[in-house]
Amino acid sequence: MKPSFSILSTVIFSLSAIALVGCSSFERNPPPSPSSVVLFDSQQQLQGINHEVLGPISGAACQISINDPLVTVRQAESQIQRQAQRSGANAVLIENCEIIQNVPGCVRQTVCKGQAIKFTPIN
């Protein structure tokens, strides 16, 4: 007796779905965490460290409505770390962070500005 087409197709579909779920949850090279970008708050901390300044960088966090949780400097720092990571930097020299009220589109915005830094090997 031959298995019916519907049973066979159900088995094939189920096995395919299991295989796809298994493959999609396996990530060979996960992206590095933004927290792997080191934050510095003074130029003195970089003395004696071989590095290259890649350029200015900023990160911001926005509180859209008055009912949303307050935005923090840490949220803006996290955004600046993400931007640094995308630019190939592995550190940021934070120059300043400020909280600004009533920015268009935001009730309150926290902005951090600095310099993207890449550590370089000693030749």
**Given the structure, what is the number of helices?**
2
Low-confidence stretches: 3-31
Strand count, sense and barrel status of the largest sheet are: 4 strands, mixed
Tell me the total number of β-strands: 4
InterPro entries: RcsF (IPR030852)
Pfam families: RcsF
Protein name: Rcs stress response system protein RcsF
Structural features:
single chain, 123 residues, alpha+beta, Translation Initiation Factor IF3, four-stranded mixed β-sheet, 2 helices, 4 strands, disordered N terminus
Describe this structure in words.
The chain has 123 residues and is of the alpha+beta class. It has a domain of 86 residues: 2-Layer Sandwich (Translation Initiation Factor IF3). It is 28% helix and 35% strand. The chain has 2 helices and 4 strands; from the N terminus they run αββαββ. A 4-stranded mixed β-sheet has the order 1-3-4-2. A hairpin with a 2-residue loop joins β3 and β4. It is elongated and about 55 Å long. The N terminus is likely disordered.
